[in-house]
């Protein structure tokens, strides 16, 4: 009988389309067979456990410079925390300095990440206003494996509509996929100025400066410009029904548009901004966290399939860094940590409540994101795929806190939330990366994935 290098035996295997009792056999770094009574030189018993593809998070910011700060998790701590939560691939970002070429910037980002990562990763190429003069370099970025391109409609990186049109066209011409932060920056900056002029400086005013209606407006405008130049588009961190409706309408009309949301919008409400003192600054992120009604509607949207992907937008800052904006909410460094809890949290709240099937959970957190961004061998349990796998204990209860998580911000917006279901073991390319509650590999085990395509949104 054929003996494989490693067999995960007796587990309940969950893919985006089915759930079966089966063994999963691995040779080297690759899934070699799925079936009954498979034999391995090494065997892991997964009886009573779920066996899923490794989760794929296509939206994280590790050691990202923002103003005077840098997001607290670096490529080691961030990927380690991801692995503890069952994530085996991430996509981070390249932002070129004005004087750098896109290729130089990608090489510099890889030089930073390669020695540190414990799971596999790839990079979106950001096209900033300064890069509009460099659009002829977009084919170089694509050839370097950055097949997805980040465009901002907000912040200092904001592209005006004409620049957006130029960037979308350049990405279309190489067969790439634009991934976009859609908000209406002119309205936001005007509302912020108005609020500050009236002395409304507390984080309470953060979501009130970034109305849901205008997030939806920006998403709709983006979708229309993308239709004009006939390019697909993926919309990042959807926080509200207005944006969901724009995406659903475009999809009904046959447009290749997808959307993602994130745990902060599914687990928190804007009351968090009214917590006293520095506590109210911590959940500042953009788009902002919104009302309970918006949260409920987002769960319905993921359940219906009107949003196709769940990512994290992991971008944490320390309490001290957040506190620098206590007197002016518009200066608080934006972003929250979620990289570790996403996969188990969506199982616990989504599958646990019956809103999602196990296959929807796997699809939204593993399969659909991998497919969208062209991680061809990730996100699925199938012969020939990378042996990126999670052995998931559906009964293990974990209460989230800085003590139970491995992120480095020193706080979590999910403090005290108890999840049912947590990864027991995480494998990347056949190697146990997390097991027995410990990290089993060193920085540098993870690899850069040189992507060769992005796929049209389904
Ligand atoms: O506030 C956030 N979300 N910070 C991270 C950068 C971004 O907008 O995605
Ligand atoms: Zn963003
Ligand atoms: Zn982001």
Concise description?
With about 450 residues, the chain is of the alpha/beta class. About 30% of the residues lie in helices and about 25% in strands.
- Largest sheet entry: 9 strands, mixed
How many helical stretches? 13
Task: Kindly provide the name of the CATH class of the largest domain.
Answer: Alpha Beta
Described by the principal axes of the CA atoms, the overall outline is globular
Number of domains: 2
Total strand count, please?
Answer: 19
- Proportion of helical residues: 25-40%
Write structural notes for this entry.
This protein is an alpha/beta fold. The chain folds into two domains: 3-52 and 386-438, Urease, subunit C, domain 1 (Roll); 54-373, TIM Barrel (Alpha-Beta Barrel). Helix content is 30%, strand content 24%. Strands 1, 2, 3, 4, 5, 16, 17, 18 and 19 form a nine-stranded mixed beta sheet that branches. It has an eight-stranded parallel beta sheet with strand order 6-9-10-11-12-13-14-15. Helix 3 (138-143) links the parallel strand 10 (120-126) and strand 11 (148-152). The structure holds N-(aminocarbonyl)-beta-alanine and zinc ion (2 copies).
């Amino acid at each position: 009988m054929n003996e494989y290098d490693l067999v995960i035996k007796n587990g309940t295997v969950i893919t985006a389309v089915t759930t079966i009792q089966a063994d999963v056999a691995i040779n080297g770094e690759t899934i070699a067979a799925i079936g009954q009574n498979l034999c391995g030189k090494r065997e892991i018993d997964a009886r009573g456990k779920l066996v899923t593809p490794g989760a794929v998070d296509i939206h994280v910011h590790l050691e990202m410079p923002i103003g005077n700060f840098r997001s607290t998790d670096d490529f080691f701590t961030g990927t380690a925390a991801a692995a503890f939560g069952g994530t085996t691939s991430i996509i981070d970002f390249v932002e070129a300095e004005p004087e750098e070429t896109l290729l130089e910037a990608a090489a510099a980002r890889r030089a930073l990440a390669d020695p540190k990562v414990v799971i596999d990763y790839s990079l979106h190429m950001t096209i900033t206003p300064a890069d509009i003069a460099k659009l002829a370099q977009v084919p170089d970025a694509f050839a370097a494996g950055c097949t997805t391109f980040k465009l901002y409609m907000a912040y200092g990186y904001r592209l005006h509509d004409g620049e957006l049109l130029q960037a979308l066209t350049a990405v279309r011409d190489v067969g790439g996929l634009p991934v976009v932060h859609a908000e209406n920056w002119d309205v936001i900056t005007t509302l912020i100025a108005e609020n500050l002029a009236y002395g409304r400086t507390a984080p309470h005013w953060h979501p009130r400066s970034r109305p849901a209606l205008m997030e939806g407006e920006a998403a709709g405008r983006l979708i229309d410009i993308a239709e004009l130049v006939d390019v697909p588009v993926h919309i990042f961190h959807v926080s509200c029904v207005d944006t969901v409706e724009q995406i659903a309408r475009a999809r009904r009309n046959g447009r290749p548009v997808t959307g993602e949301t994130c745990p902060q919008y599914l687990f928190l409400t804007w009351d968090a901004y009214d917590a006293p003192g520095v506590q109210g600054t911590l959940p500042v992120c953009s788009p902002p966290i919104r009302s309970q009604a918006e949260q409920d509607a987002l769960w319905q949207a993921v359940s219906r399939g009107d949003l196709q992907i769940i990512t994290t937008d992991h971008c944490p800052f320390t309490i001290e860094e957040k506190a620098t904006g206590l007197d002016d909410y518009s200066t608080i460094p934006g972003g929250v940590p979620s990289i570790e809890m996403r996969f188990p949290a969506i199982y616990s709240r989504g599958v646990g409540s019956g809103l999602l099937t196990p296959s929807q959970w796997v699809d939204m957190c593993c399969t659909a994101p991998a497919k969208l961004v062209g991680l061809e061998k990730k996100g699925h349990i199938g012969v020939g795929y990378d042996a990126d796998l999670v052995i998931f204990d559906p009964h293990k209860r974990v209460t989230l806190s800085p003590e139970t998580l491995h992120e480095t911000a020193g706080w979590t917006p999910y403090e005290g939330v108890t999840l049912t279901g947590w990864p027991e073991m995480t494998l990347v390319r056949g190697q146990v990366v997390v097991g027995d509650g410990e990290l089993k590999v060193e920085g540098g085990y993870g690899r850069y994935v040189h992507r060769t395509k992005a796929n049209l949104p389904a």
